[in-house]
Amino acid sequence: MNESQKSGRSSLSGIKPLFRVNGFRWAFLSSPLALCFPLSLSFGASPAQAETQTETAAMPAVVVTATRQESALMNLAGNTGQVSEEEVELLNADHITEALGRISGVNIQRGNGAESLVALRSPVLTGPGAAGAFLFMEDSIPLRAAAFANNNGLAEPHFEMAGSIEVVKGPGSALYGSNAVHGLFNVLSRDPSSELEREIGLTLGSDDLYKVRGTVSNSSGDHAYRISFSGTEDSGWREESGLGQQKLTVRHDYDADDTNSFKTIFSVFNLNQETAGFIKSDDPKAYEDSDLMETNPDSDAYRDWWSLRLSTRWDHDMADGGLLSLTPYLRSNEMEFRQHYLPSRAIEENEHQSVGLLAAYYMDVDGGHEVIWGTDVEFTQGSLRQEQERSSYAFFGNKLRQQGVHYDYEVDAVTIAPYVHAEWQLSEKLIATTGLRYEHVRYDYDNKVASGTGLADGSDSQCTDFPHAILPGTYSGPCLYKRPEDRKDHFSDLSPKLGLVYHLSDTQAVFANLSRGHRAPQVTDLYRLQNQQEVGEMDSENLDSLEVGIRGESGLVSYELSAFFMKKDNFFFRDSAGLNVTDGKTKHRGLEASVMLPFGESFDLAANYTYAIHKYDFDNASSGVVNGNYVDTAPKHLANVRVGWDFKDDSRAELEWNHVSRYFLDPSNAHEYDGHDVVNLRVNTQINPSVTLNAQIRNLLDEEYADRADFAFGDYRFFPAQGRNIQVGASISF
Question: What is the mean pLDDT of residues 14-24?
Fold first, then answer.
């Protein structure tokens, strides 16, 4: 670690670098009482503490994602969570779940290996309903094209070596369009260092886990660079569940002159994974059988996945005082995996390549106002092929799944999205934020096999004499899979935003935000149909959100409290019987609390708490949905509490408690999971200027629980969580 890095660490009242979340020294209360806790709370402080506290208040935290450039968090009408670089280093995470659990409103259920399902002010969304509900980005550029989202998209960004991770809760600003329905995740690369920095680290863990990561960085004149890499080899704690993963990020910053600067980023991701699938059982607590949980009923499941991205951001200071920003980018993604979670167990191959441009003009207006005019343009070519190897059969009713190709198509997609975002200084204390985005997307779909619900070669219009997987006899009728004829589709959406921020003082502000998020249908929504669906019946999913909150510091306490209400239309999801539902409606409301409290010079308490209610707002008899039912996989209570101890310079220990309350497993609310509590312990200590040691015990109390639970196709299904496991490692700077 170089001297400039050491001096850049924050401190408060002599406390060695306490970690920052949301740009503040955070903590959270794990009870609804948090909502009335810190507004007038203060503690006695020594003169030195008071002086440092004043310095901290004079330097408000900044975030990048809201406007694609640094913005003061205290001036934002919305809610942005942040995981700092110091936290990334402490966590040394295998999976991004470990980092994002430190932000209120976030609930990510880990599947096997690098896989995951996401909730952000939402239920944990699965299947078609999850793709496109959240926007996953790296350095403010979407990881995948808007129409080609993937539920497991958070595996791609280089979070292991991130400079920070930012999460915008609720619909994004006007700068972000399709897929930022419930919010967005942005993994930001580390800045280059001002002098030579070289570091490499190795970690060993239980069940033959090996991790390596490193970085090299330097600056010379107008040029600066950073190269970061990480690799993981994991044999897996379940049978035949190993993975190999590699990531590389190369960044080059160039200040050409006083008016032009360039930032170029190249990223590569590769994953080869043997996937352990669901444990199925009629026992609602089968996850407590540790021997059963270590088995893998899907030993032939796998996921092979690679991607690369290249972008250059050019910022040009205009003569009139404005800033022109142009970011051209390229991306390429390929994936092949077995759909082990579906009865067909088909092999899916998908890929897409994109070229795009983010163009924005930032201008200051007399009176302290700021306006951003911009347009996002992208062209994508993608394809998908799905093929079933197992023999033809019927299952779960008269659902006929034929051997052979189910879908084989190509799609060209064009997106054009002009927008305007403005911040108006209405008075010394009051700021209004307005925004409007118009997004038009056009798809050109080319079907490569026979259309309709028959066999892919067109030889038969029906599936005939298929044996049932469980019941005696054979079944005939239309196949489950429906392929549209070649067609063109287009969707246009408006996303308005209105926000207000009122500064109660230099260190406290209240805010309100009214916004709309949307996502145009994914190509898989439109062209990978089931036989009960009509071609062209889908429309864009829309979510209207109202949020009010307060953030700031009072005495030594930093906090953020918010309440939200959201309503979603045209919700597309797959129910527990495997049927696609295209016109769902849901309501969401909740409270979030985030607080941090230091104790003395060495200890701090940090926590986040979320209380949320997610309900269906329509009836659908075939899915068991009744208006007012709770949406499945939506815990009411989430909590993360951390006690930290900076026991010497550049050394920290942290005890963490994660709580997930009970939740329903199906739309009819007939089956439940009991929830769980998990405790983790981490230690990171620098023993000399060149060597740092780290260790952690995950699931310290050896809790038996499920990372994910659901009820589908007549069975309880669990992704079991790993029992107590240990990691130790060291990093060397040279």
Answer: 32
Q: CA-to-CA distance for 434 and 447, rounded, in angstroms?
A: 42
Strand partners, 509: 503, 551
List, in order of start, the domains of the chain with CATH numbers. Answer: 3-733 (2.40.170.20)
What's the start-to-end Cα distance of the chain, in Å? 9
One-letter-per-residue 3-state SS of 241-301 = CCEEEEEEEEEEEEECCCCEEEEEEEEEEEEEEECCCCEEECCCCHHHCHHHHCCCCCCCC
Q: Which of 446, 334, 352, 345 is nearest to 386 (CA)?
A: 345
Residue pLDDT, tens place only, 256-268:
999 999 999 999 9
Spatial separation of the C-alpha atoms in residues 308 and 79, rounded to whole Å: 30
- How many Å apart are CA 187 and CA 166, to the nearest integer? 6
| Spatial CA neighbour of 448 closest among 485, 402, 404 | 485
Query: Would you say 93 and 578 are in contact if contact means Cβ atoms under 8 Å apart?
Result: no
**Spatial separation of the C-alpha atoms in residues 688 and 681, rounded to whole Å:** 23
Q: What is the pLDDT of residue 72?
A: 86
The per-residue pLDDT for 30 is 34
Length of the chain: 734
Instruction: Convert the pLDDT of each residue in 288-306 to its tens digit.
Output: 999 999 999 999 999 999 9
pTM flag (> 0.70)? yes
d(CA 700, CA 681): 7
Task: Give Cβ neighbours of residue 618 (< 8 Å, ≥ 6 apart).
Answer: 583, 584, 585, 625, 627
